[in-house]
Structure formats: structure tokens, C-alpha cells
């Protein structure tokens, strides 16, 4: 959030081993695998991150758990964005917007999680579509 890539990588690296243990201890719990995917995306471990987030979404489908399932789809958009997969990120973001969750105009407009998508006309259209009406 403070745009210090070195500190971010250090923080992600420090957390990774601990989160990997959690994910291994709970291999069928989507949120644990999802957090590992976010960490790996933050570390630039693209293939691992994308594989892990696909697994998290499979483990926690919306039909099984509407709240956590929606979160998995939202976080899959973030992981894909961080991994440089804009098309996938935007596809998952569009899907997440159709589900209950905490996505909103303000969150998309302000949270740095979405920075990799800023400037992409498709992302900007999504944000604009959520602009609060007077």
C-alpha cells in the first residue's frame, strides 16, 4: 500500500512458509489456499499463484458457501491481476460483481489491490458502472 516493493516482498516471504503449513494442514479449505495464492502472486510466483487460486475456487464454490465462495472469486481476480493476467482478472472481477460480497465503487477506485488493472479501459468501465448515483 505504501508502494515499497522491497518491504512488500520481504513481508510476503516472511509469511509464506507459515501460510504454506496452514494450507497443507487444511488442504480442503479454500481460504487457506487462497491466502497462499495471494502471497505467491505478491512474490511473483505466477504459476504457483494461479494454480493455488484455481484450487481455492474449486474447494469453495459459491454453491457450497455463498460468502466464502464469492470471496474466492474476488480474490481470484486480485491474484490474476497481480500475476499479470489482466484478461482473467477482469473476467473474474465481472463474475465477482454479480455475487454478494464487499466489492464496491470505493474499494475498486481506492484499494491498491486493483492497481495492476488501472488504466485498462475495461476496468475503468467497471469502476464507472459502480459510481454512486445521486
Q: Largest sheet, described in full?
A: none
Low-confidence stretches: none
CATH class, named Mainly Alpha
Number of helices: 7
CATH topology: Serine Threonine Protein Phosphatase 5, Tetratricopeptide repeat
Report the mean per-residue pLDDT as an integer.
Answer: 93
Determine the strand fraction and express it as a percent band. Answer: under 5%
Order of helices and strands: HHHHHHH
Main structural class: mainly alpha
Quick one: how many beta strands?
0
The backbone outline, from C-alpha atoms, is globular
Evaluate the radius of gyration.
Answer: 15 Å
CATH architecture: Alpha Horseshoe
Percent helix range: 55-70%
Termini separation? 30 Å
Written description of the protein model:
The chain has seven helices and no strands. The protein is mostly helical. The protein has one domain: Serine Threonine Protein Phosphatase 5, Tetratricopeptide repeat (Alpha Horseshoe). The protein is globular and about 50 Å long. The termini are far apart.
Amino acid at each position: 500500500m505504501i508502494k515499497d516493493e522491497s518491504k512488500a516482498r520481504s513481508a510476503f516471504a516472511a509469511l509464506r512458509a507459515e501460510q504454506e503449513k496452514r494450507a497443507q494442514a487444511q488442504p480442503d479449505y479454500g481460504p487457506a489456499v487462497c491466502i497462499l495464492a495471494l502471497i505467491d502472486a505478491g512474490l511473483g510466483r505466477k504459476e504457483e499463484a494461479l494454480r493455488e487460486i484455481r484450487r481455492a475456487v474449486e474447494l469453495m464454490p459459491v454453491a457450497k458457501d455463498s460468502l466464502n465462495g464469492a470471496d474466492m472469486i474476488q480474490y481470484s481476480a486480485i491474484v490474476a491481476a497481480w500475476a499479470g493476467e489482466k484478461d482473467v482478472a477482469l473476467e473474474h472481477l465481472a463474475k465477482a460483481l454479480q455475487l454478494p460480497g464487499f466489492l464496491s465503487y470505493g474499494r475498486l477506485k481506492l484499494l491498491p489491490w486493483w492497481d495492476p488493472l488501472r488504466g485498462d479501459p475495461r476496468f475503468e468501465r467497471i469502476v464507472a458502472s459502480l459510481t454512486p448515483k445521486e
